[in-house]
Each structure stands twice: as C-alpha cells, then as structure tokens.
Amino acid sequence: MAEGRPAVPAQLRRDLLVEAGHRCAIPTCRQPTPLQLEHIEDWAKVQRHEFANMIVLCANCHARKTAGQIDRKSLHQYKANLAVLNNRYGEVERRVLELFATSGHLNGYVQFPGTFDILLMYLLRDGLLTRVADHGMQVEIMGVPQAVRYTLTDTGRTFVQRWRNAEVVEPAADSEDS
C-alpha cells in the first residue's frame, strides 16, 4: 500500500472479493491467489476507495494493468460483466461459462448427471447452453439419464467470446416465468 493511502475498509474488501468469487476478475485468468485490489481509475486521480471503481486482480494481471497491457476501459467492462453474470447465473452456471472461456473450446461439451438441468436452468432458458442428443448407449435410472452432454449454442459462444474479450455482455431478457 502506498504511503499515506488509507487501508481499504474490511467490508469493501470482502464485497469486492465476493463479487469476483475470490478469484482474479479477468475471465481468462481467474487465478485464486495472490489477489490484490486495484483501482480502475487510478488512486492518484480519485483519492478514495469505492466499490464501483475497484476490481480484484491477481498479482500477474495487476502488473499487466500497471504496465498498460490491460486498459481502464477493459477493467470497467470486466467489472460490469461481473454484475451481469453474478446477478443472473448461479455458481455452477458461471463455472461452466468460465470453463468454456478459459479452455478456448467453444464447440466442445461438458457432461453432467441428468439431474443437473436444474443447476443449469438459466443458461438453458436463456439459450446459451443446450443438451446434446446422445446417440450412444444411455443408462437411465428411474427415467433419469446418468450422463447428459451440454454444449454452447451460437448465442452462448458469442456471449463467452464477448465476456472473454472484455466486451459488453447483455443480460438475458427475463422470461415471463422466471
């Protein structure tokens, strides 16, 4: 911490860490440690700690921001996209999106037990994810498939690419029954 700069209040630190899931906020990084709090608009300019102007970065991404490799506009967009994802999607759904974003395999699939539809409900409802028909042998117990494959739709691939590239991700329109 720079000399003469007040410490970030504990509640603000906690709120920022929770917002980022205790990981670096850069979607292609997401390192869990070491984490640092960064002012999007430089401290020298704003002279205050505010939630809207701060973001959690790992030490590597913090150094990249300081070196000018990650610009303020990108950081503002990463921050805005966190709000969209955190307010719309659950933890499992965010991890599925993160997996596609970090792997680069946007045409791949993830496989879960058949009971996972409820945990992926908003990704499915928003048209970002779809079930893949399995033409192989399928085991069902009491009518529930034991393994289901899911893949990104075209809309889902666009969403993940935009999120990964620090572009605006639009919140999905709420359906009438949500």
UniProtKB/TrEMBL annotation:
The keyword Hydrolase applies. Residues 12-63 form the HNH nuclease domain. It holds the Pfam family HNH. One of its GO terms (molecular function) is zinc ion binding. Keywords: Endonuclease, Hydrolase, Nuclease. This is HNH endonuclease signature motif containing protein.
